[in-house]
Amino acid sequence: MTHHATGPVVLSEAVADALAEGRPVVALESTIISHGFPRPRNLEVARTFEQTLVNEGVTPATIAVIDGVPHVGLDDAQVERIAQDESVIKVSSRDLGPAMVARATGATTVAATALLAHRAGLRVFSTGGLGGVHRGASQSYDESADLTMVARMPITVISAGAKSILDIPATLERLETLGVTVVGYRTKHYPGFYLSDSGYEIDWQVDSAEEIAGIMAANDALGLENAVLVANPLPVDKQLDPELHDRVLAEGLAESEQRGIHGKEATPFLLAWMVEHTQGRSLEVNIDIAVNNIRLGGEIARAWVGRSA
Ligand code: PSU
Ligand code: MN
């Protein structure tokens, strides 16, 4: 593969060409692949994510650190490695420097992906659920670096809200403090990841990809450098059964507290707990969430390049 470097960041040929020709590109993170979904299903899922974009004429840019080099756009062998190699580490933005020096291979979180996507010149990034403030954070101080990073990166991030394993109202308060633009796609109800509605309201509703591209342009024109967070709920008939969700999540939170799970293990532990104790139903919902966000990301990326054309 021909490589195109922007500083230390290497772009795949497909991504570099799409950018040069003004075609739409959507960034995808890789922690969701390595640490969010169980093996071996995660490889099929990673391919589905990319194919969803390709089918709509959008270039996927899956982002990861391979042997110490940050890559924007992976080839098949690199996607396989992220999905299959158990030694792949979880890399947040603060881990990028050490991972590069150690020549490590790591999957990037929302924080690290947003940073690398921005450095590569991408404007749209789809994920499943954003990291946020963990429950009990007033004691543990556990708050995802996703929040502070999206406050600093002018990129549009499509998610189904913050993961319901988190403290949602606290996360919304932090997003407000940090000056992150939050809009609901066709709703004012902030979604709850596995659930279509977290029970909390947001101020702005947008109804089209064009409207979102307009908000991006308006923020740019003002010199704002924060992300636009697009909260995209799953349709109610596709959400996880709320009763099952609440029960299994409560058990998982108690278990993680008892085992003293913390730091970067907290989110993967709770996601895996949900998969195991919902007999895999949370996994199917998580895939639907991500695909739904990737589709919308594709539409927004198209609207964005359409504006500047
Ligand atoms: N969304 C998913 N599954 C995931 C994640 C997001 O559907 O596994 C990952 C993202 O990479 C996000 C990370 O950045 O969880 C948050 O981890 P932490 O809470 O440790 O910051
Ligand atoms: Mn954390």
* Major beta-sheet overview: 12 strands, mixed
Structural class: alpha/beta
Rg, rounded, reads: 18 Å
Helix count from the secondary structure assignment? 13
SSE order, as H and E?
Answer: EEHEHHEEHEHEHEHHEHEEEEHEHHH
Q: What's the number of extended β-strand segments?
A: 14
Bound molecules: pseudouridine-5'-monophosphate, manganese (II) ion
**Ranges with pLDDT <50 over ≥5 residues?**
none
Please tell me the overall pLDDT.
96
How much helix, percentage-wise, in residues?
40-55%
User: Beta-sheet strand percentage?
Assistant: 15-25%
Spatial separation of the terminal alpha carbons: 29 Å
Shape: globular
Summarize the structure.
The chain has 309 residues and is α/β, with parallel strands linked by helices. The protein contains 13 helices and 14 strands.
Describe the structure.
The protein has 309 residues and is of the alpha/beta class. It is built from 13 helices and 14 strands. It has helices at 13-20, 31-36, 41-54, 76-84, 96-101, 110-119, 137-140, 145-150, 168-177, 209-221, 242-258, 266-277, 281-308, and strands spanning 4-6, 9-11, 25-28, 59-66, 69-72, 89-91, 106-108, 124-126, 156-159, 181-185, 189-192, 195-201, 204-206, 228-231. A hairpin with a 2-residue loop joins strand 4 and strand 5. The two termini are 29 Å apart. The structure holds pseudouridine-5'-monophosphate and manganese (II) ion (MN). Pseudouridine-5'-monophosphate (PSU) is lined by residues 29, 31-32, 35-36, 109-110, 127-129, 131, 144-146, 264, 267, 271, 286, 290.
